[in-house]
Input
Amino acid sequence: MRILAVAQNTFREAVRDKVLYVLLFFAASTILGSKALGWISIGQDVKIVKDISLAAVSIFGVLIAIFVGTSLVYKEIDKRTIYTIICRPMARWEFIAGKYLGMALLLAIVTAVMTLVTTGYVLSLGGSVDATFFQAVLLIYWELLLITALAVLMSSVTSPILGALIVFSAFVVGHATTILIDLPDHFKGTWTEFVLTCVYYVIPNLSNFNIRAEAANGVAVAPAYVLWAMAYGSVYTIMLLVLASLAFEDKDV
Amino acid sequence: MGRKLIIAAVTLGVAFSICIVSQKRMDAMRSRTFEQELLYLPNEKLLDGFTAGMSSVVADLLWIQCIQYTAEQFRGDFKFVWLDHMLKTITRLDPYFTDVYQWGGVFLAMLKHDDDASINLLKSGIPHNPTSWQLPFEIARTYVLNRKDEVNGARYMAMAAATGDPPQFVIDWAKNLQQRHNMYDVERGMWLDIIQHSGDESMRGTAQRRLTEVDLRQLCDALTEALKAYSTRTGSVPASLQEMVDSGDLARLPEDPLGGSFIITADGTVLSTSVLDTEKEARIRLLNGWIEKFEVKERRLPAKLDELITSGITHGLPVNPFPGAQWEYDPATGQVK
Output
Protein backbone atom coordinates (compact mmCIF):
# COMPACT_ATOMS: atom_id res chain seq x y z
CA MET A 1 0.00 0.00 0.00
CA ARG A 2 2.81 2.40 0.98
CA ILE A 3 4.74 1.39 -2.15
CA LEU A 4 1.67 2.09 -4.29
CA ALA A 5 1.23 5.51 -2.72
CA VAL A 6 4.85 6.44 -3.59
CA ALA A 7 4.38 4.96 -7.11
CA GLN A 8 1.22 6.99 -7.66
CA ASN A 9 2.94 10.15 -6.49
CA THR A 10 6.01 9.50 -8.67
CA PHE A 11 3.80 8.95 -11.71
CA ARG A 12 1.88 12.18 -11.07
CA GLU A 13 5.13 14.09 -10.64
CA ALA A 14 6.65 12.64 -13.82
CA VAL A 15 3.53 13.42 -15.86
CA ARG A 16 3.92 17.08 -14.86
CA ASP A 17 7.54 17.10 -16.11
CA LYS A 18 7.84 19.20 -19.30
CA VAL A 19 10.81 17.13 -20.52
CA LEU A 20 8.40 14.21 -21.03
CA TYR A 21 6.24 16.17 -23.47
CA VAL A 22 9.22 17.60 -25.36
CA LEU A 23 10.57 14.05 -25.85
CA LEU A 24 7.12 12.73 -26.83
CA PHE A 25 6.78 15.53 -29.39
CA PHE A 26 10.15 14.64 -30.95
CA ALA A 27 9.25 10.93 -30.91
CA ALA A 28 5.97 11.61 -32.76
CA SER A 29 7.76 13.92 -35.24
CA THR A 30 10.39 11.22 -35.94
CA ILE A 31 7.72 8.56 -36.46
CA LEU A 32 5.60 10.71 -38.78
CA GLY A 33 8.64 12.13 -40.59
CA SER A 34 10.13 8.69 -41.32
CA LYS A 35 8.08 8.50 -44.53
CA ALA A 36 10.39 11.12 -46.06
CA LEU A 37 13.22 8.56 -46.13
CA GLY A 38 10.89 6.01 -47.72
CA TRP A 39 10.39 8.31 -50.71
CA ILE A 40 14.01 7.95 -51.79
CA SER A 41 14.11 4.15 -51.42
CA ILE A 42 13.01 1.62 -54.06
CA GLY A 43 9.66 0.62 -52.60
CA GLN A 44 10.81 -0.09 -49.03
CA ASP A 45 8.74 2.75 -47.47
CA VAL A 46 6.82 0.67 -44.93
CA LYS A 47 9.92 -1.25 -43.82
CA ILE A 48 11.82 2.01 -43.29
CA VAL A 49 8.87 3.59 -41.44
CA LYS A 50 8.67 0.53 -39.14
CA ASP A 51 12.43 0.58 -38.52
CA ILE A 52 12.59 4.26 -37.65
CA SER A 53 9.40 4.15 -35.58
CA LEU A 54 10.60 1.21 -33.46
CA ALA A 55 13.98 2.93 -33.04
CA ALA A 56 12.14 6.10 -31.95
CA VAL A 57 10.09 4.14 -29.38
CA SER A 58 13.34 2.71 -28.02
CA ILE A 59 15.59 5.79 -28.05
CA PHE A 60 12.98 8.27 -26.76
CA GLY A 61 11.87 5.73 -24.14
CA VAL A 62 15.48 5.45 -22.99
CA LEU A 63 15.85 9.25 -22.92
CA ILE A 64 12.69 9.56 -20.79
CA ALA A 65 13.95 6.79 -18.48
CA ILE A 66 17.32 8.56 -18.16
CA PHE A 67 16.16 12.17 -17.76
CA VAL A 68 13.27 11.44 -15.43
CA GLY A 69 14.76 8.34 -13.74
CA THR A 70 18.18 9.72 -12.76
CA SER A 71 16.66 12.60 -10.82
CA LEU A 72 13.97 10.58 -9.03
CA VAL A 73 15.69 10.07 -5.68
CA TYR A 74 18.23 12.91 -6.02
CA LYS A 75 15.48 15.52 -6.41
CA GLU A 76 13.74 14.33 -3.23
CA ILE A 77 16.99 14.73 -1.28
CA ASP A 78 17.91 18.02 -2.94
CA LYS A 79 14.53 19.61 -2.25
CA ARG A 80 14.44 18.00 1.21
CA THR A 81 10.99 16.55 0.54
CA ILE A 82 12.49 13.18 1.47
CA TYR A 83 12.19 14.14 5.18
CA THR A 84 8.41 14.10 5.00
CA ILE A 85 8.58 10.56 3.66
CA ILE A 86 11.34 8.88 5.69
CA CYS A 87 9.92 10.11 8.98
CA ARG A 88 6.88 7.93 8.29
CA PRO A 89 6.85 4.21 9.15
CA MET A 90 8.23 3.19 5.77
CA ALA A 91 11.30 1.12 4.88
CA ARG A 92 13.76 2.76 2.51
CA TRP A 93 13.52 -0.14 0.05
CA GLU A 94 9.77 0.51 -0.13
CA PHE A 95 10.51 4.08 -1.19
CA ILE A 96 12.86 2.85 -3.96
CA ALA A 97 10.34 0.21 -5.11
CA GLY A 98 7.56 2.82 -5.21
CA LYS A 99 9.69 5.27 -7.18
CA TYR A 100 10.57 2.49 -9.65
CA LEU A 101 6.97 1.31 -10.09
CA GLY A 102 5.80 4.87 -10.77
CA MET A 103 8.40 5.20 -13.54
CA ALA A 104 7.49 1.74 -14.91
CA LEU A 105 3.85 2.82 -15.18
CA LEU A 106 4.82 6.07 -16.91
CA LEU A 107 7.00 4.19 -19.43
CA ALA A 108 4.22 1.66 -20.07
CA ILE A 109 1.85 4.47 -21.00
CA VAL A 110 4.47 6.31 -23.11
CA THR A 111 5.38 3.08 -24.96
CA ALA A 112 1.71 2.25 -25.53
CA VAL A 113 1.02 5.74 -26.95
CA MET A 114 4.04 5.60 -29.29
CA THR A 115 3.08 2.07 -30.42
CA LEU A 116 -0.47 3.21 -31.12
CA VAL A 117 0.79 6.14 -33.24
CA THR A 118 3.20 3.84 -35.12
CA THR A 119 0.56 1.15 -35.76
CA GLY A 120 -1.96 3.70 -37.03
CA TYR A 121 0.66 5.32 -39.25
CA VAL A 122 1.88 2.02 -40.75
CA LEU A 123 -1.72 0.91 -41.42
CA SER A 124 -2.55 4.26 -43.03
CA LEU A 125 0.42 3.77 -45.40
CA GLY A 126 -1.04 0.43 -46.58
CA GLY A 127 1.35 -1.69 -44.49
CA SER A 128 0.54 -4.24 -41.84
CA VAL A 129 1.80 -5.08 -38.36
CA ASP A 130 2.15 -8.67 -37.18
CA ALA A 131 2.82 -10.46 -33.88
CA THR A 132 6.60 -9.90 -34.17
CA PHE A 133 6.03 -6.14 -34.20
CA PHE A 134 4.28 -6.31 -30.82
CA GLN A 135 6.89 -8.76 -29.49
CA ALA A 136 9.54 -6.18 -30.45
CA VAL A 137 7.63 -3.44 -28.58
CA LEU A 138 7.29 -5.71 -25.53
CA LEU A 139 11.05 -6.32 -25.47
CA ILE A 140 11.74 -2.59 -25.92
CA TYR A 141 9.59 -1.99 -22.82
CA TRP A 142 11.47 -4.71 -20.93
CA GLU A 143 14.76 -3.04 -21.88
CA LEU A 144 13.38 0.29 -20.62
CA LEU A 145 12.52 -1.37 -17.30
CA LEU A 146 16.14 -2.47 -16.94
CA ILE A 147 17.48 0.96 -17.92
CA THR A 148 15.10 2.58 -15.42
CA ALA A 149 16.37 0.29 -12.65
CA LEU A 150 19.92 1.41 -13.49
CA ALA A 151 18.75 5.05 -13.53
CA VAL A 152 17.16 4.62 -10.08
CA LEU A 153 20.41 3.08 -8.79
CA MET A 154 22.39 6.03 -10.18
CA SER A 155 19.86 8.46 -8.73
CA SER A 156 20.53 6.97 -5.28
CA VAL A 157 24.31 7.31 -5.48
CA THR A 158 25.18 10.25 -7.71
CA SER A 159 24.01 13.51 -9.29
CA PRO A 160 21.48 13.49 -12.16
CA ILE A 161 23.99 14.69 -14.81
CA LEU A 162 26.65 12.13 -13.94
CA GLY A 163 23.95 9.46 -13.55
CA ALA A 164 22.50 10.29 -16.99
CA LEU A 165 25.95 10.02 -18.59
CA ILE A 166 26.65 6.66 -16.92
CA VAL A 167 23.22 5.21 -17.85
CA PHE A 168 23.49 6.40 -21.46
CA SER A 169 27.00 4.92 -21.72
CA ALA A 170 25.69 1.66 -20.27
CA PHE A 171 22.92 1.70 -22.91
CA VAL A 172 25.45 2.07 -25.75
CA VAL A 173 27.93 -0.45 -24.32
CA GLY A 174 25.11 -2.88 -23.46
CA HIS A 175 24.33 -3.13 -27.16
CA ALA A 176 27.97 -3.81 -28.07
CA THR A 177 28.93 -6.49 -25.53
CA THR A 178 29.35 -9.18 -28.20
CA ILE A 179 32.60 -7.52 -29.32
CA LEU A 180 34.04 -8.54 -25.91
CA ILE A 181 33.88 -12.23 -26.80
CA ASP A 182 34.40 -11.88 -30.56
CA LEU A 183 38.19 -11.82 -30.18
CA PRO A 184 40.95 -12.66 -32.67
CA ASP A 185 42.48 -16.16 -32.40
CA HIS A 186 45.67 -15.05 -30.63
CA PHE A 187 43.60 -14.13 -27.54
CA LYS A 188 42.47 -17.75 -27.06
CA GLY A 189 43.36 -19.08 -23.58
CA THR A 190 44.84 -15.77 -22.35
CA TRP A 191 43.92 -13.82 -19.20
CA THR A 192 42.59 -11.04 -21.43
CA GLU A 193 40.06 -13.45 -22.88
CA PHE A 194 39.06 -14.61 -19.36
CA VAL A 195 38.63 -11.05 -18.05
CA LEU A 196 36.68 -9.90 -21.11
CA THR A 197 34.42 -12.98 -20.89
CA CYS A 198 33.72 -12.12 -17.22
CA VAL A 199 32.92 -8.52 -18.21
CA TYR A 200 30.66 -9.86 -20.97
CA TYR A 201 28.56 -11.75 -18.44
CA VAL A 202 28.47 -8.89 -15.90
CA ILE A 203 27.28 -6.12 -18.27
CA PRO A 204 23.63 -6.68 -19.24
CA ASN A 205 23.50 -7.66 -22.92
CA LEU A 206 20.86 -5.25 -24.22
CA SER A 207 21.01 -6.67 -27.76
CA ASN A 208 18.97 -9.57 -26.34
CA PHE A 209 15.99 -7.20 -26.35
CA ASN A 210 16.56 -6.08 -29.94
CA ILE A 211 14.32 -7.94 -32.41
CA ARG A 212 13.47 -4.77 -34.32
CA ALA A 213 15.07 -5.95 -37.61
CA GLU A 214 12.90 -9.08 -37.47
CA ALA A 215 9.80 -6.99 -36.72
CA ALA A 216 10.43 -4.55 -39.60
CA ASN A 217 11.05 -7.40 -42.05
CA GLY A 218 8.14 -9.59 -40.83
CA VAL A 219 10.42 -12.45 -39.69
CA ALA A 220 8.79 -14.61 -36.99
CA VAL A 221 10.46 -14.81 -33.56
CA ALA A 222 9.86 -17.83 -31.30
CA PRO A 223 7.72 -16.89 -28.25
CA ALA A 224 10.17 -18.91 -26.11
CA TYR A 225 12.96 -16.46 -27.09
CA VAL A 226 10.82 -13.51 -25.98
CA LEU A 227 10.11 -15.24 -22.63
CA TRP A 228 13.83 -15.95 -22.06
CA ALA A 229 14.73 -12.35 -22.84
CA MET A 230 12.03 -11.14 -20.42
CA ALA A 231 13.30 -13.49 -17.69
CA TYR A 232 16.89 -12.25 -18.30
CA GLY A 233 15.75 -8.62 -18.09
CA SER A 234 13.67 -9.23 -14.96
CA VAL A 235 16.59 -10.81 -13.09
CA TYR A 236 18.96 -7.94 -13.96
CA THR A 237 16.27 -5.41 -13.01
CA ILE A 238 15.73 -7.06 -9.62
CA MET A 239 19.50 -7.12 -8.99
CA LEU A 240 19.81 -3.41 -9.81
CA LEU A 241 16.85 -2.52 -7.59
CA VAL A 242 18.35 -4.52 -4.70
CA LEU A 243 21.62 -2.60 -5.18
CA ALA A 244 19.70 0.70 -5.31
CA SER A 245 17.89 -0.18 -2.06
CA LEU A 246 21.18 -1.11 -0.36
CA ALA A 247 22.83 2.12 -1.54
CA PHE A 248 19.90 4.22 -0.35
CA GLU A 249 19.73 2.30 2.95
CA ASP A 250 23.25 3.50 3.84
CA LYS A 251 22.78 7.00 2.46
CA ASP A 252 23.00 9.82 4.96
CA VAL A 253 20.16 12.15 4.00
CA MET B 1 4.51 45.68 -30.46
CA GLY B 2 3.91 45.53 -34.24
CA ARG B 3 7.20 47.28 -34.93
CA LYS B 4 9.09 44.94 -32.63
CA LEU B 5 7.58 41.95 -34.43
CA ILE B 6 8.62 43.32 -37.85
CA ILE B 7 12.17 43.96 -36.61
CA ALA B 8 12.35 40.48 -35.13
CA ALA B 9 11.01 38.88 -38.33
CA VAL B 10 13.47 40.83 -40.52
CA THR B 11 16.37 39.95 -38.20
CA LEU B 12 15.42 36.27 -38.29
CA GLY B 13 15.04 36.36 -42.09
CA VAL B 14 18.47 37.99 -42.55
CA ALA B 15 20.09 35.57 -40.09
CA PHE B 16 18.50 32.59 -41.83
CA SER B 17 19.67 33.82 -45.26
CA ILE B 18 23.21 34.18 -43.93
CA CYS B 19 22.98 30.61 -42.59
CA ILE B 20 21.94 29.29 -46.03
CA VAL B 21 24.70 31.22 -47.82
CA SER B 22 27.39 30.07 -45.40
CA GLN B 23 26.13 26.47 -45.58
CA LYS B 24 26.35 26.57 -49.39
CA ARG B 25 29.87 27.99 -49.22
CA MET B 26 30.97 25.27 -46.77
CA ASP B 27 29.31 22.57 -48.92
CA ALA B 28 31.24 23.83 -51.94
CA MET B 29 34.53 23.91 -50.02
CA ARG B 30 34.08 20.51 -48.44
CA SER B 31 32.37 18.81 -51.39
CA ARG B 32 33.41 15.15 -51.40
CA THR B 33 32.42 12.53 -53.88
CA PHE B 34 30.63 9.40 -52.72
CA GLU B 35 33.93 7.57 -53.23
CA GLN B 36 35.67 9.86 -50.73
CA GLU B 37 32.82 9.56 -48.25
CA LEU B 38 32.84 5.78 -48.49
CA LEU B 39 36.52 5.68 -47.54
CA TYR B 40 35.27 6.47 -44.04
CA LEU B 41 32.64 3.72 -43.98
CA PRO B 42 33.77 1.61 -41.02
CA ASN B 43 34.10 -2.12 -40.90
CA GLU B 44 30.61 -3.67 -40.71
CA LYS B 45 31.47 -5.66 -37.55
CA LEU B 46 32.44 -2.48 -35.72
CA LEU B 47 29.38 -0.65 -37.05
CA ASP B 48 27.10 -3.45 -35.82
CA GLY B 49 28.54 -3.23 -32.30
CA PHE B 50 28.32 0.52 -31.86
CA THR B 51 24.95 1.45 -33.32
CA ALA B 52 23.35 1.04 -29.86
CA GLY B 53 20.72 -1.33 -31.23
CA MET B 54 19.95 0.93 -34.20
CA SER B 55 21.64 -1.35 -36.76
CA SER B 56 18.43 -1.76 -38.74
CA VAL B 57 17.98 2.02 -39.06
CA VAL B 58 21.64 2.46 -40.02
CA ALA B 59 21.09 -0.23 -42.68
CA ASP B 60 18.14 1.77 -44.07
CA LEU B 61 20.21 4.96 -44.23
CA LEU B 62 23.14 3.17 -45.88
CA TRP B 63 20.76 1.53 -48.38
CA ILE B 64 19.43 4.95 -49.42
CA GLN B 65 23.05 6.13 -49.81
CA CYS B 66 23.79 2.97 -51.82
CA ILE B 67 20.91 3.75 -54.23
CA GLN B 68 22.25 7.28 -54.68
CA TYR B 69 25.80 5.97 -55.20
CA THR B 70 24.57 3.48 -57.83
CA ALA B 71 22.61 6.22 -59.63
CA GLU B 72 25.66 8.52 -59.57
CA GLN B 73 27.95 5.81 -60.91
CA PHE B 74 25.35 4.90 -63.54
CA ARG B 75 25.43 8.48 -64.82
CA GLY B 76 29.18 8.84 -64.22
CA ASP B 77 32.20 6.58 -64.68
CA PHE B 78 30.29 3.28 -64.30
CA LYS B 79 32.88 1.65 -61.99
CA PHE B 80 30.81 0.82 -58.87
CA VAL B 81 34.03 0.18 -56.88
CA TRP B 82 32.38 0.50 -53.46
CA LEU B 83 29.06 -1.16 -54.28
CA ASP B 84 30.01 -4.62 -53.02
CA HIS B 85 31.39 -3.27 -49.73
CA MET B 86 28.27 -1.15 -49.13
CA LEU B 87 25.93 -4.07 -49.82
CA LYS B 88 27.86 -6.40 -47.51
CA THR B 89 27.76 -3.80 -44.74
CA ILE B 90 24.01 -3.25 -45.13
CA THR B 91 23.18 -6.97 -45.14
CA ARG B 92 25.42 -7.54 -42.14
CA LEU B 93 23.54 -4.80 -40.25
CA ASP B 94 20.12 -6.11 -41.30
CA PRO B 95 20.35 -9.71 -42.59
CA TYR B 96 16.58 -9.87 -43.22
CA PHE B 97 16.51 -6.91 -45.65
CA THR B 98 15.61 -9.00 -48.73
CA ASP B 99 15.32 -6.01 -51.08
CA VAL B 100 19.01 -5.25 -50.56
CA TYR B 101 20.06 -8.77 -51.55
CA GLN B 102 17.68 -8.73 -54.52
CA TRP B 103 18.40 -5.24 -55.88
CA GLY B 104 22.06 -5.44 -54.84
CA GLY B 105 22.37 -8.71 -56.77
CA VAL B 106 20.81 -7.04 -59.81
CA PHE B 107 23.09 -3.96 -59.54
CA LEU B 108 26.20 -6.12 -59.21
CA ALA B 109 25.32 -8.49 -62.06
CA MET B 110 23.71 -6.11 -64.54
CA LEU B 111 25.58 -2.84 -63.89
CA LYS B 112 28.96 -3.81 -62.43
CA HIS B 113 29.04 -7.10 -64.40
CA ASP B 114 30.48 -8.84 -61.32
CA ASP B 115 28.57 -12.16 -61.40
CA ASP B 116 30.58 -13.74 -58.58
CA ALA B 117 29.89 -10.86 -56.19
CA SER B 118 26.20 -10.91 -57.17
CA ILE B 119 25.84 -14.67 -56.64
CA ASN B 120 27.77 -14.57 -53.34
CA LEU B 121 25.63 -11.73 -52.01
CA LEU B 122 22.39 -13.51 -52.96
CA LYS B 123 23.61 -16.84 -51.56
CA SER B 124 24.50 -15.17 -48.25
CA GLY B 125 20.89 -14.01 -47.96
CA ILE B 126 19.22 -17.40 -48.44
CA PRO B 127 19.91 -18.83 -44.92
CA HIS B 128 18.42 -15.67 -43.34
CA ASN B 129 15.44 -15.50 -45.71
CA PRO B 130 14.51 -19.12 -46.54
CA THR B 131 11.00 -18.19 -47.78
CA SER B 132 12.11 -15.50 -50.23
CA TRP B 133 11.92 -16.93 -53.78
CA GLN B 134 13.48 -13.75 -55.21
CA LEU B 135 17.00 -14.65 -54.01
CA PRO B 136 17.40 -18.06 -55.76
CA PHE B 137 15.53 -16.56 -58.73
CA GLU B 138 18.11 -13.77 -59.15
CA ILE B 139 20.94 -16.31 -58.83
CA ALA B 140 19.30 -18.44 -61.54
CA ARG B 141 18.85 -15.38 -63.74
CA THR B 142 22.52 -14.47 -63.40
CA TYR B 143 23.58 -18.04 -64.26
CA VAL B 144 21.28 -18.27 -67.29
CA LEU B 145 21.54 -14.75 -68.73
CA ASN B 146 25.09 -13.69 -67.83
CA ARG B 147 26.97 -16.98 -67.69
CA LYS B 148 24.84 -19.03 -70.11
CA ASP B 149 24.99 -21.82 -67.48
CA GLU B 150 21.53 -23.38 -67.67
CA VAL B 151 22.41 -26.38 -65.45
CA ASN B 152 23.14 -24.22 -62.40
CA GLY B 153 20.36 -21.86 -63.48
CA ALA B 154 17.89 -24.77 -63.40
CA ARG B 155 19.07 -25.77 -59.90
CA TYR B 156 18.37 -22.35 -58.45
CA MET B 157 15.21 -21.86 -60.48
CA ALA B 158 13.88 -25.12 -58.99
CA MET B 159 14.70 -23.74 -55.54
CA ALA B 160 12.89 -20.47 -56.39
CA ALA B 161 9.83 -22.35 -57.66
CA ALA B 162 9.62 -24.32 -54.40
CA THR B 163 10.22 -21.34 -52.08
CA GLY B 164 7.52 -19.08 -50.64
CA ASP B 165 4.89 -17.90 -53.12
CA PRO B 166 6.64 -17.54 -56.48
CA PRO B 167 4.68 -16.11 -59.43
CA GLN B 168 3.61 -18.44 -62.23
CA PHE B 169 6.39 -17.44 -64.65
CA VAL B 170 9.03 -18.64 -62.14
CA ILE B 171 7.32 -22.03 -61.83
CA ASP B 172 7.05 -22.32 -65.63
CA TRP B 173 10.66 -21.25 -66.19
CA ALA B 174 11.86 -23.77 -63.57
CA LYS B 175 9.84 -26.54 -65.22
CA ASN B 176 11.16 -25.75 -68.71
CA LEU B 177 14.78 -25.61 -67.56
CA GLN B 178 14.40 -28.86 -65.62
CA GLN B 179 12.88 -30.67 -68.56
CA ARG B 180 15.66 -29.41 -70.83
CA HIS B 181 18.41 -30.62 -68.53
CA ASN B 182 16.80 -33.61 -66.78
CA MET B 183 17.41 -32.00 -63.43
CA TYR B 184 15.50 -34.46 -61.23
CA ASP B 185 18.66 -35.81 -59.55
CA VAL B 186 20.00 -32.34 -58.89
CA GLU B 187 16.66 -31.26 -57.38
CA ARG B 188 16.47 -34.47 -55.35
CA GLY B 189 19.96 -33.78 -53.96
CA MET B 190 18.95 -30.26 -53.03
CA TRP B 191 15.91 -31.41 -51.03
CA LEU B 192 17.88 -34.24 -49.39
CA ASP B 193 20.46 -31.66 -48.32
CA ILE B 194 17.74 -29.56 -46.67
CA ILE B 195 16.26 -32.65 -44.92
CA GLN B 196 19.68 -33.57 -43.53
CA HIS B 197 20.97 -30.13 -42.58
CA SER B 198 18.08 -27.76 -41.96
CA GLY B 199 17.40 -26.92 -38.31
CA ASP B 200 13.86 -25.85 -39.15
CA GLU B 201 11.35 -28.66 -38.72
CA SER B 202 8.73 -27.16 -41.05
CA MET B 203 11.41 -26.64 -43.72
CA ARG B 204 12.40 -30.32 -43.41
CA GLY B 205 8.72 -31.33 -43.71
CA THR B 206 8.30 -29.23 -46.84
CA ALA B 207 11.53 -30.67 -48.31
CA GLN B 208 10.30 -34.24 -47.61
CA ARG B 209 7.06 -33.55 -49.50
CA ARG B 210 8.97 -31.90 -52.39
CA LEU B 211 11.27 -34.92 -52.56
CA THR B 212 8.27 -37.23 -52.99
CA GLU B 213 6.86 -34.84 -55.59
CA VAL B 214 10.13 -35.05 -57.59
CA ASP B 215 9.67 -38.88 -57.66
CA LEU B 216 6.05 -38.41 -58.74
CA ARG B 217 6.97 -35.97 -61.53
CA GLN B 218 9.62 -38.36 -62.80
CA LEU B 219 7.10 -41.21 -62.65
CA CYS B 220 4.58 -39.09 -64.60
CA ASP B 221 7.21 -38.46 -67.32
CA ALA B 222 7.84 -42.22 -67.59
CA LEU B 223 4.08 -42.95 -67.69
CA THR B 224 3.60 -40.28 -70.38
CA GLU B 225 6.30 -41.97 -72.51
CA ALA B 226 4.59 -45.37 -72.03
CA LEU B 227 1.24 -43.79 -72.92
CA LYS B 228 2.70 -42.30 -76.12
CA ALA B 229 3.92 -45.77 -77.15
CA TYR B 230 0.44 -47.19 -76.38
CA SER B 231 -1.26 -44.42 -78.44
CA THR B 232 1.09 -44.91 -81.39
CA ARG B 233 0.36 -48.65 -81.38
CA THR B 234 -3.43 -48.52 -80.82
CA GLY B 235 -4.21 -45.12 -82.41
CA SER B 236 -6.15 -43.89 -79.34
CA VAL B 237 -5.48 -42.27 -75.94
CA PRO B 238 -6.47 -44.61 -73.04
CA ALA B 239 -9.25 -43.38 -70.73
CA SER B 240 -7.32 -44.59 -67.66
CA LEU B 241 -4.03 -46.23 -66.72
CA GLN B 242 -5.98 -49.43 -65.97
CA GLU B 243 -6.44 -49.87 -69.75
CA MET B 244 -2.63 -49.91 -70.13
CA VAL B 245 -2.33 -52.49 -67.32
CA ASP B 246 -4.98 -54.65 -69.02
CA SER B 247 -3.15 -54.39 -72.35
CA GLY B 248 0.15 -55.33 -70.69
CA ASP B 249 1.82 -51.95 -71.40
CA LEU B 250 2.09 -51.38 -67.64
CA ALA B 251 3.01 -54.12 -65.14
CA ARG B 252 0.75 -52.66 -62.44
CA LEU B 253 -1.04 -49.48 -61.45
CA PRO B 254 1.44 -46.98 -59.91
CA GLU B 255 0.84 -45.82 -56.33
CA ASP B 256 1.03 -42.27 -55.05
CA PRO B 257 2.61 -42.19 -51.53
CA LEU B 258 0.97 -38.79 -50.94
CA GLY B 259 -2.50 -40.31 -51.38
CA GLY B 260 -3.31 -38.74 -54.76
CA SER B 261 -4.09 -40.34 -58.10
CA PHE B 262 -2.95 -40.09 -61.72
CA ILE B 263 -4.97 -38.38 -64.44
CA ILE B 264 -4.58 -38.38 -68.22
CA THR B 265 -5.05 -35.08 -70.11
CA ALA B 266 -6.63 -34.82 -73.56
CA ASP B 267 -3.18 -34.45 -75.19
CA GLY B 268 -1.97 -37.68 -73.57
CA THR B 269 0.07 -36.36 -70.63
CA VAL B 270 -0.02 -38.17 -67.27
CA LEU B 271 -0.24 -35.90 -64.24
CA SER B 272 -0.17 -36.55 -60.48
CA THR B 273 -3.01 -34.94 -58.49
CA SER B 274 -0.66 -34.60 -55.47
CA VAL B 275 1.77 -32.48 -57.51
CA LEU B 276 -1.14 -30.52 -58.98
CA ASP B 277 -2.55 -29.95 -55.47
CA THR B 278 0.74 -28.36 -54.34
CA GLU B 279 0.84 -26.15 -57.43
CA LYS B 280 -2.81 -25.23 -56.93
CA GLU B 281 -2.23 -24.27 -53.28
CA ALA B 282 0.76 -22.08 -54.23
CA ARG B 283 -1.27 -20.32 -56.92
CA ILE B 284 -4.25 -19.82 -54.56
CA ARG B 285 -1.91 -18.25 -51.99
CA LEU B 286 -0.58 -15.97 -54.71
CA LEU B 287 -4.09 -14.98 -55.84
CA ASN B 288 -5.27 -14.36 -52.27
CA GLY B 289 -2.20 -12.18 -51.66
CA TRP B 290 -3.07 -10.10 -54.73
CA ILE B 291 -6.69 -9.83 -53.55
CA GLU B 292 -5.43 -8.49 -50.21
CA LYS B 293 -3.27 -5.94 -52.06
CA PHE B 294 -6.30 -4.97 -54.17
CA GLU B 295 -8.40 -4.49 -51.01
CA VAL B 296 -5.76 -2.25 -49.44
CA LYS B 297 -5.45 -0.22 -52.65
CA GLU B 298 -9.12 0.06 -53.63
CA ARG B 299 -10.75 -0.28 -50.16
CA ARG B 300 -13.05 -3.02 -51.51
CA LEU B 301 -12.88 -6.60 -52.69
CA PRO B 302 -12.67 -7.25 -56.45
CA ALA B 303 -15.99 -8.26 -58.03
CA LYS B 304 -14.11 -10.53 -60.48
CA LEU B 305 -10.55 -11.82 -60.58
CA ASP B 306 -9.98 -9.91 -63.84
CA GLU B 307 -10.06 -6.70 -61.81
CA LEU B 308 -6.64 -7.68 -60.42
CA ILE B 309 -5.28 -7.09 -63.95
CA THR B 310 -7.22 -3.90 -64.71
CA SER B 311 -6.15 -2.37 -61.36
CA GLY B 312 -2.49 -3.05 -62.18
CA ILE B 313 -1.90 -5.53 -59.34
CA THR B 314 -0.72 -8.18 -61.83
CA HIS B 315 -0.18 -8.56 -65.57
CA GLY B 316 -1.91 -11.95 -65.77
CA LEU B 317 -3.73 -14.57 -63.68
CA PRO B 318 -2.24 -18.01 -63.05
CA VAL B 319 -4.24 -20.87 -64.56
CA ASN B 320 -5.71 -23.64 -62.45
CA PRO B 321 -3.16 -26.49 -62.85
CA PHE B 322 -5.96 -29.11 -63.01
CA PRO B 323 -6.79 -29.51 -66.72
CA GLY B 324 -10.03 -27.75 -67.65
CA ALA B 325 -10.64 -26.52 -64.08
CA GLN B 326 -11.41 -22.84 -63.33
CA TRP B 327 -10.82 -20.82 -60.15
CA GLU B 328 -13.86 -20.46 -57.90
CA TYR B 329 -13.85 -16.92 -56.56
CA ASP B 330 -16.25 -15.70 -53.87
CA PRO B 331 -16.53 -11.86 -54.15
CA ALA B 332 -18.28 -11.71 -50.76
CA THR B 333 -15.34 -13.19 -48.80
CA GLY B 334 -12.56 -12.37 -51.27
CA GLN B 335 -11.29 -15.95 -51.19
CA VAL B 336 -10.28 -18.16 -54.11
CA LYS B 337 -10.94 -21.89 -53.98
Notes: DSSP finds 15 helices and four strands in chain B.
